Amino acid sequence: MSIDKAFKESVKGYFKAHGSTTFTFSELKQALHIKPKHDKKLKKTLYMLNNYGDIKKLRDGSYKWDSTCGGKYRNSNNNHAGKKNGSNNGVKLDLGKLETVLCVYRKNGEHWSYTPILKKSTNAKLTVFKSDKTELENIEQGSIVEVKPIKSKDGNTYQGGKFIRLVGKSVVGSESYISLHNHGIKPEFSEEIMKYVNSLKEISQKQILKRQDLRHLPLITIDGKDSRDFDDAVFAEKWFDAKDNHIGYHVIVAIADVAYYVPKGSPLDLEALKRGNSTYCPDMVVPMLPERLSNGLCSLVPNEDRPVMAVHLYIDINGELQKHKFVRAVIKSHKRLTYDQVQTAIDGDFTDVIDEVFYKDVIAPLESAYELRKTQKDFRGALTIEKPESRILVDYRTGEISEAEAISRHKSHMIIEEMMILANIAAGHTLEEYIGMYRVHEEPSVEKVEDFLRTLDQLGVPYSPKINPEYITAEDFQTIADSLEGRKDKNFILDMMPKSQSKAYYSPDNEGHYALALTHYAHFTSPIRRYADLVVHRVLIEVLTLPCFGGAVYEEDEALEIGEQISKTERISEKAAKESMSRFMARHYSKRIGEEFSVRVSSIGAFGVYVRILETGAEGILSPRDLKALSYKFDEESHTYVGKGKKIEPIMIGTKLKVKLAKTSILSGRIAFDYVSFADDFDYDMQDVA
Description:
This protein is an alpha+beta fold. The chain has a five-stranded mixed β-barrel.
């Protein structure tokens, strides 16, 4: 069911016009004159607006305009945070849903205090209670501690904090814990959950005999070198017809059978739903499922029998999926390979890990199947953005940053990605007649497209005049991406492209996937780390009457709530991971204060100018003082900073500058630069150093 933009905007406008007024679903129906046959349409619109952060769904099921977010996913902050209350010594803090807060513990003579680490920096200090001083006596100044703020008698301010535990001896090494805690993500599992998980046993021989036996096939896992949870294995072979004509490829994608170990409604299932997904920080992973499952019982480690949900996929010589079949099976992974190892073999360099025979028998058929799928993807007009990604490498033994770099994706990555997409397409089509969980990606807003095209104009990037912001296709975006080949700012522009797109989300209503140019798409391939995939597995098991237990069905309202929950947790995880990366980048550059860097302006607005270091993608703010000294002011119409004199160049997204690193704050994850000069050209760009 498609939601037209006019209807969505009218509902959004009604909420905005009524400010803080709350409305039940029935009240909205009456106020907006919604007929019963359009109930589903209104429900879906409310679901989307809540996902986008325009409105807020309250605990009682009613809705209100979210004035603190306004669709920008900003965390609200109390304007009075950190100020004294006048009548007492309490301080105001906006803790949101947090019950405890991480603080920097400070000692100044006899005065001991906690400085809360919150999204918005404040000067607030919580008093240390005398009853805690014995525990704190041996804790060093500057340590990171967890504290429960205690309210003052007025009930509106906080007078002090109750010490709970020591988190780290310094902000260095605590970067991820701070980011995770501030977003309500708990790395640990409860004793109840761990007791349940520790009681789980490996699949029995009786259960194995009920499954399709694929152990004789050379299925392999291909992951990053640091991966520990192997949730997918792949296999491909030529597909022949009855007359022995080669007509395509038979691909098997085998996925860890999490549903077998995690029944719907169990305490572990409820915890997984609460988390929604795993969260990946530079130095740690907070798994959706405890490690005994994610890295043990469910992980497709080599030479071990593992239960899987597998799908047999048959593609013709044009790369089209002709038929598919889901089965519950048992496999034995023949090798655990890394992307680098596979790419080395693809490039013609063979080793003891992948010799020439293994390459021809196992890797080459996957490579050929990928080439067919790539042709089909290009034909349907899907968008593929291939660019280096920023990465911080942390030594797990010491916690020290060993490297900060931009890494490129290779064909080995794309092979696995395309096989996973193929399996997800099959899952999406199979769910068509049932209530499941789709991955939805809607077309971008006209406003975002216009902003992107304006930036292309400013950077001198040509594009077809036929492109209409109201009807732009994924293929149009791909044409623009392809036209960037050879430009030094190619990867910088590609990095902006996803920001011009809508945010993907989960829903039982199939709205298609805009960027992939697909009508049916459901996440099936990562149930270890995504709850949506676990839902899809359960539904497939149930509706296809596959053997062994673990299947389930969902009511529509239940599936809508799950989609809303896991879409929210996905955004929260992304924010926490991004903040963790920012803190690590601030730590990485803290030793380079005073150095000059080549940067590009990455974002711009009334808030100021942010620039990006090209080697690593680290971002920081350009000194507002320098902008003022250079007589720059923000021009909203052109979305640039313009100076008073005609000879002063404007500053816009993509402008090349030389800057000096002025300061960093690991605590807040912020980097600040001083302006040095405009830069006519760079010796390198991100694509050259990846």
